Amino acid sequence: MPQAGAPVFAADLARALEALQAPRVDIPVIQPAEPFLDMAGEDLRRRIFLTESETGESLCLRPEFTIPVCRAHIAENVATPRRYSYLGEVFRQRREGGNEFYQAGVEDLGETDEASADARALSEARALIAEFAPAASLSIVLGDQSVFEAVVAGLGLPAGWQKRLIHAFGNEAALTTMIARLASPDASATPDPSVADFLAKGDAGGLEAHIESVMQATGYSTNASRTPAEITARLMDKQSLDATRLPSASLDALKTFLALDVPLDCAGQALADFADHAGLDIRAARKQFEARLAALSDRGEDLSAMRWRAAFGRPLDYYTGLVFEISAGEGDAALAGGGRYDRLMTLLGAQQPIPAVGFSLWLDRIETVRAQP
User: What are the backbone angles phi and psi of residue 179, rounded to the nearest 5°?
Assistant: First the structure.
């Protein structure tokens, strides 16, 4: 049964989740902090409530469910495909609302038909919101991290810039800043004079030896920080990225892509038209994108009532493909959100890659919508 203080509809919601062939899993409130700090993303990291065990282990109050559900699945070493549901409190600082609130959701692990699993996650989230907030006029927006990655790769950017842009996906301000830098490299970003000559010559060996000597002279322990080799690689990578300028045609293509915002039933054609006009070969990403659209249609979802925004992402670092949010109106806080996170299971210790997708529901926001006349 849901805990005391949960919304009045929580018990019914828990039963509805289990009816989706997703048995309830209980996740401890106290969690090791490291997986969240390493994999959840900056937006969540700065909101976590941290503490420490008697042995010095960094711990936190459970800030979300996806990572601990995946860790529990790996620890139990059970076969896939496997679905889990959850309902309980999470603890993180928020700009609006309390810092302790209830979330519920489903994690779908190991389903190899990714398009079908994506469609099921979105469809189930929408149906649950419609069931428990029937008066709400829903706004549904989708993005796709894998399509963005394919576009960035197709533009021929250095790997370091690709990594930067992908990391910023969904953060409009950060992407705008990066695109501006690609248009006009920062000439003022001059390195420290002590390393400038090494960087100008591309002398990685000399730079590494210099950094090591400085660290030894100052008594700086390499065990407590990056090694000289790591610092050297970082400095040389930064120097290369700061000097990179994106050709105007590529820059225009990136801006055009990020401006795409169309009803979902028009998204396949819009993406195809963009790729053809930009001369980008993103066939693999398009194929998966179109398969998801077909799977949503097969489930009876109204694609014309949803939107695809090419720049839309969610502030969690582990997403790899589909991302979506469902709200009670344009610009309102999300009632549900989710997406695909195929890399997370391996990063958490799974021996083999496990495809994964899921969604979460914000129960306090649903309760607010239910109370509206």
Answer: -65, -40
Q: Which residue has the tokens 């109370």?
A: 371
Q: Which amino acid is at 231?
A: I
Half-sphere exposure of 233 toward its Cβ, with a 13 Å CA cutoff? 6
pLDDT of the chain, 373 residues: tens digit per residue: 446 678 999 999 999 999 999 999 999 999 999 999 888 777 778 889 999 999 989 999 999 999 999 999 999 988 999 999 999 999 998 877 789 999 999 999 999 999 999 999 999 999 999 999 998 999 999 999 999 999 999 988 777 778 888 888 888 888 888 888 777 765 445 556 776 676 666 677 887 787 777 777 776 655 445 677 777 666 656 655 565 667 788 889 999 999 999 999 999 999 999 999 999 999 999 999 999 999 999 999 999 999 999 999 987 888 999 999 999 987 788 999 999 999 999 999 999 999 999 999 999 999 999 988 7
Q: Alpha-carbon distance 338 to 222, whole Å?
A: 40
Decide: helix, strand or coil at residue 327: strand
- State both tokens at 239: 């120097």
Backbone angles phi, psi at 325, to 5 degrees: -140, 150
Query: Which residues have C-beta within 8 Å of that of residue 181, sequence separation ≥ 6?
Result: none
CA angle (46, 49, 50) in 5-degree steps = 100
CB 135 within 8 A of CB 325: no
Cα distance from N-terminal residue to C-terminal residue, the chain? 29
CA distances from 96 to 105, 325, 343, 364, 370 (A): 21, 18, 31, 11, 18
Look up tokens 């469609």; give the residue: 119
Contact (CB, 8 A) for 138 and 327? yes
Q: Residue 262: CB partners within 8 Å, gap ≥ 6?
A: 270, 307, 308
> Residue 103 in contact with residue 128, Cβ under 8 Å?
no
Distance CA 168, CA 118 (A): 23
- Give counts: helices (H), strands (E), the chain: 16, 11
Radius of gyration (Cα) for the chain, nearest Å? 23
What are the structure tokens assigned to 257, written together?
Answer: 């892509």
